[in-house]
Amino acid sequence: MARTWKINGRFLGQPLTGVQRYATEILAAMDRLIQQRHPLTDDLAVEILAPERVDSATSGDRFPNIPVRRVGPGSGHVWEQAVLPGQARDAGLLCLCNTAPLLHPRTILCIHDLNTRLFPQSYSLPYRLYHRYVTPLAARRATRLVTVSHYSAHQITAWGLATADRITVIPNGHEHALRWTPRHSDATRKAAGADTIVVIGSPAPHKNVGMLLALAPRLDAFGFRIALVGSLDTRVFQGSGAAATSSNVTALGRLTDNQMAALTGSSLCLAFPSFAEGFGLPPLEAMALGCPVVTSDRASMPEICGDAVLYADPGQPEAWLEAFRTLRADPGLRFKLTAIGKARAALFNWTDSALAWLELMAKLDGMNNPAQLRD
After folding, report:
1. Running DSSP on this structure, what letter comes out for residue 227?
2. Where is each Glycosyl transferase family domain found (predicted)?
3. DSSP annotation string for 116-170
4. Predicted local confidence at residue 222, as pLDDT
5. Which of 268, 259, 184 has its CA nearest to residue 229?
6. Continuous segment of H or E residues that includes residue 57
7. What class is the 182-345 domain?
8. What is residue 55's predicted lDDT score, i.e. its pLDDT?
9. What is the CATH number that goes with domain 3-173+349-373?
């Protein structure tokens, strides 16, 4: 008898951020394992359920072995709460992007972070209210929770959303960045260089980009430039009011993956000054591409980056200035961080993470010793 699981495909109609990247890459790796007939996919029937507005043909290109079925009406939270449960009522349900229906009896929910609790000022009021009241209910009703780091798992238990025995840590992977083909735009080519610090992230307060922008005049005095990447989704985030006003700051907005690969590959380093991150995918991507990283010493970053990066206190601008100067002055250090960074990134693998999801699904299906089938 087939083991049947549905997947919450609401993310397919959303802009690609780290959360949607996680869902996409987990399912792409799961799709390959289904094609290879991995033992954990024996008797497994998987289907993505998505709102009607999602282009199922495009989704089919990404997941050729996992069918996509559009069901409606509606979209967003209303679709997720009112339509999805009925369509998945006879199956398990995977929700990989922070939200889940309250009325489904067998759900695995991935909560990436609790940043709305840690930095509420970063988020719009409707977004905060949803995650303040609905997310805890969804977490408590879910059969199991998944999160992307031990740091996030600790936050989930500390805020009382679940006990530790109900949480499985399944991290992000790095291989998607290796598929990027470095390709400059005119803007990224002009912004890149041996003195360029790449800063990625929205101006939401927890991203702490404003600290580096305030430091820009001092960086300019030492010959550094900042290439600022990213934009603000006002439906989710609230900005800090920081602006790129210094002459050594180039605001590039959103870049394609290929442009990002070209920019980081032609610059001094990636700077990631966040106060709070559930995982911190940009440093992992930069390490995979051989770009040195200077990152915050807070939240999940030490767990993910290990000894492969330079750390600085996000509340101490002088520490960041000193890290950039040290990195530029020491080619040997840059070479070392490049090598160690690639090795560190390789520890985080999408296939391993997809296998962890399949193992968890098998356990809930009553399969005996599914861990023995992973290798």
Report:
1. E
2. 186-342
3. HHH-GGGB-HHHHHHHHHHHHHHHHHSSEEEESSHHHHHHHHHTTS--GGGEEE-
4. 98
5. 259
6. helix 56-62
7. alpha beta
8. 67
9. 3.40.50.2000
Instruction: Return the H-helix or E-strand segment holding 195.
Output: strand 193-200
The residues, ordered by sequence, that sit 6+ positions from 206 with a Cβ below 8 Å of its Cβ are 115, 118, 119, 122, 274, 275, 276
Tell me what pLDDT residue 244 has: 55
**Length of the chain in terms of residues written:** 375
**Mean pLDDT by 10-residue block, N- to C-terminus, for the chain (375 residues)?**
92 91 98 96 95 67 91 91 95 97 96 95 91 94 98 97 97 98 98 97 87 95 96 44 72 95 98 97 98 98 98 98 98 98 98 98 90 74
Structure tokens at 267: 């610059």
Beta bridge partners of 110: 146
Strands 225-229 and 144-147: unpaired
What is the domain partition of the chain in residue ranges?
3-173+349-373, 182-345
Domains 3-173+349-373 and 182-345 share a fold: yes
Q: Please say whether the beta carbons of 6 and 92 come within 8 A.
A: yes
**Gap between the terminal Cα atoms of the chain:** 24
168 token code pair: 């499985």
Measure Cα distances from 112 to 22, 85, 172, 366 in Å.
10, 22, 10, 26
Pick the closest to residue 6 from 50, 59, 60 (CA basis). 50
User: Residue 172's pLDDT is what?
Assistant: 98
Return phi, psi of residue 248, to 5°: -95, 10
Q: Contact at 8 Å (CB) between 206 and 296?
A: no
Amino acid at 16: L
Q: How far apart are CA 47 and CA 8, in angstroms?
A: 9
Q: What is the rounded CA–CA span in Å between residue 14 and residue 158?
A: 29
